[in-house]
Every structure is written in structure tokens, then in C-alpha cells.
Exosortase A (Thauera aminoaromatica), 306 residues
Amino acid sequence: MNMKGTAMLQSVRPGAMPTHLQATDARPATLGDPRTRRLHLAVLALGLLWLLFWYRDTFLAMVGIWDRSDTFAHGFVIAPISAWLVWRRRHFIDHVPIAPSLLGICAGLVAGAAWLLGELASVDAVSQFAFVGMLVGFVWAVMGSAVVRTYAFPIGFLFFMVPFGEFLFPTMMQWTADFIIWAVRASGVPVYAEGFLLVIPSGRWQVVEGCSGVRYLMASIVVGSLYAYLNYRSTQKRLLFVAASIVLPVFANWLRAYGIVMLGHLTDNRLAAGADHLIYGWVFFGIIILALFWIGSRWQEDEEEA
């Protein structure tokens, strides 16, 4: 006992802190001082508010589209969901180094240049994507690459705020019309088609933007991406589920449109007309999404630990 005590005393020089105490009390240098970390968070909050104010016209243009179009109404909930995703992983921030990033500064500058090009060319989608890119670039520049990697999905999820996908309307309308024509004829009902106008013995039907399925596709991609992130840790499973969330609503919309036409035909247009058209569509789509989630739950994985 005395010999062990002597050996310990010999390893400590006068005026020096014992080695074992140094290892226990020292805070990892890469994590930084708590006050410095709070300063980074304060700069981040003020900087994001400044960007929202300075580029408010671009942001308000996005909000206007969310308000006018059911297809992009999900834009209202993207930022709150992103904030919630960060909050639920808030304990990770204590284990991640925070430091300014030159790559983040470069990304922000590139996004700023893209925004300017979008404004000069009057291409709203480019300006809006670039605006979100500037927000992401600023987070990266202030908080550093390690933080961005840790919160990659919540940060990237913000890009769903951009009302993007209107170019899909003509193509998906045509796909829907082609499927209705094929399916109705396969059901023994004659169809005359001219463009998006379909004529059957019981009446006329026209495939419009609301029939294209773009709104279902956008909603499915957002919800499917969120579900995959929350329930899977494997990148492969996440990608497969997102792919299913893209493919399934397209086929589901075809069946929905066909079902509405046949329901109207078989009931002499007493059902599946007017508001019923949209109600039946959303109910059918909801059933499909719930089925997708039920299947996806069979491969659910445990949540990642800090």
C-alpha cells in the first residue's frame, strides 16, 4: 500500500496538476467553450432572421403560392417540422464540434449568385431554391460541417418549402388520361377521346390539373421522406421507401381517376361529381398512404443513439 502511494507521489511534480485529474476535468478542445457555442447559436438566429428580412420578397412569393395552391400547401408545415426534427435531436449538439466553415461560406455565395441569376431571368423556382440554399449555406458557414452532417435531413428538408413541380402537370395529365381510356375500354365501356376530353355514353369527363395527381405526388414525397427518416437508419431502406412513395401515388391516382369515372358512369353521375370528386380522391389516397406506412412499419429500425 505504501509503495503504491510512493509511486503516485513520485509521478507528480511540485506545482503540477495530477495526470489523472487533468484527463478527467479537461473538456475536449474541439467541442469549444459553452459561451462560444451560445455565441454561434445567437449569430445563427440573427443571421437567419436577417436573410428572411432581406429576401422577404422571395419568401413571401413562396408563401403566396402555398396559400393559393393545394398542391403546395404543405409548404406551411415544412419549417416547423424541420425545427421539430432538430429539437428532437438537440442532445446531439453537445457532442458535435461547432466551428465556422469556409465550405459553408462558398456554398452561401454560390446560392446567392444563383438567386441573382434567377431574379434576372425571372425564373421564380431558381430564386426560391437559391434562397433556401442561402439559408442552408449560412447554417453551414456558422455552425460548421460536423453540425450539418449531424442534422443533414432536417436542414435538407427545408428545400421542400419550394413550390416546385408544376412542369409535371401536362405529362401526368396525359398519363392519367391514357390510363382512364385503357381501363374504361377494358371494362367494356366505349370511350371517345380528344386531348384531355373523354366522352362515354353517360357523359363527358375532362382531365384537368387536379386530376393529374401532382398534389398527391408532392404530398407523398414529403410524408414518405419524413417517414423514412424517422423509421429507418439504413440508407438503402430509406431510399427504397422514398422510391415507393414516388411510384405508388402515381399508380394510385390512375386508379382513383378510373374509379371516379366508373362510379359516375354506373350511378348516372349522381356520385363522383363536383366536390365528391375531390373527397373520394383524398379518401382513396389516404388509404393508399396508410397501407404504404403499414408495410413500411414491418421493417422499422430502432432510433439512432447519441
